[in-house]
Amino acid sequence: MRYAALVGVVVAGACGPTAFIPPPPSPQRVYAIGEVDERPEVVLHYPAGGSDGVVVVRVVIDSAGNPEPATAEVVQGSDSVLVGAARTLVLKTLFRPARVRGRVVQVLVEVPVEFSAVSQPAITLHIAGDVYGETELQERPHLVSGPTLSYPASLLLSRISGRVIIEAVIDTTGRVEDGTLRVVESSDARFNQAAKDYVRGARFVAGRIAGRAVRVRFEMPVEFKLPTRD
After folding, report:
1. Predicted local distance difference test score (pLDDT) of residue 7
2. How far separated are the first and last CA of the chain, in Å rounded?
3. Strands 212-224 and 162-170: what pairing?
4. Which residue in 17, 19, 157, 221 is deepest, having the highest Cβ count within 10 Å?
5. φ and ψ at residue 200, rounded to 5 degrees
6. Residue 112 placed within a domain
7. Using omega within 30 degrees of 0 as the cis cutoff, is the peptide bond preceding 22 cis?
8. How far is CA 36 from the centre of its chain?
9. Is residue 98 a part of any domain in this protein?
10. For residue 100, what are the domain limits?
11. pTM recorded for the entire structure
């Protein structure tokens, strides 16, 4: 029993099998934004003036929430005044660190800095890649087009109508992200697959914050209505 425990073999004892505990995340590794359980968030803002424009700064946020200056790279923006102000702003911003299984980790993020002479506050920051709720948006996504809705034949013949609410993440191009579809509510489970296929093939105008397209967790009702008889 002692030897088995030393080499990591799970041994069933009087109290049952030993639960597998994953190793803690590495403090040296830089994680991608999609790998972390909690994304870094801006907790201090340093406003700056200037003309309208957007500058995107790619930077590593360390496990203490500090941007690492040596990693900062401007990936969007050509106005030298805005670029300088955006880089300074990001490097002077303290973030809430990203986490994996509760442990703080380093993470590579892209921070869009949006300059507007008329908005208050002057700069809006959000982390590229975040998924927003509909209530957080200034412009909600809306349907542009969809495939033909396939009415299940057995339900149509039985003259059964229905309604399914589908939740999905709409990306910045207005498409549903693979693997994000789920049924929130359904009047009849036999409608579910047809409803999911419809939303998967639909196209939307993307949701926006401060004029910038963002990923949105979106709920959409799909109605199955019987054709009217003459």
Report:
1. 37
2. 78
3. antiparallel
4. 221
5. -60, -35
6. yes
7. no
8. 11
9. yes
10. 30-129
11. 0.52
Residue carrying the six token digits 């967790």 = 217
The label of the residue with tokens 């999911």 reads: 196
Count up the domains in the chain and report the number: 2
Alpha helices in the chain (DSSP H): 2-6, 80-91, 153-157, 192-201
Write a three-state SS string for 47-59: CCCCCCEEEEEEE
Residues 127, 119: Cα–Cα separation, whole Å: 19
Residue 108 sits at φ, ψ, to 5 deg, of -95, 125
What the block records as the tokens of 209 is 């914050």
- Cβ 90 vs Cβ 76: under 8 Å: no
Encoded tokens for 111: 């921070």
- The answer to whether the beta carbons of residues 140 and 206 sit under 8 Å apart is no
Residue among 160, 166, 170, 195 at smallest CA distance from 183: 166
User: DSSP secondary structure string, 190-226?
Assistant: GGHHHHHHHHHH-EEEPEEETTEEEEEEEEEEEEE-P
What span, in angstroms and rounded, lies between the C-alpha atoms of 159 and 153? 10
119 plus 157 within the same structural domain: no
* Mean pLDDT, rounded, for 172-197: 93
Lowest mean per-residue pLDDT among 56-65, 108-117, 133-142, 192-201: 108-117
At which of 61, 94, 129 does a domain end? 129
Is there a contact between 218 and 167 (Cβ–Cβ < 8 Å)? Answer: yes
Whether residue 139 has pLDDT greater than 50: yes
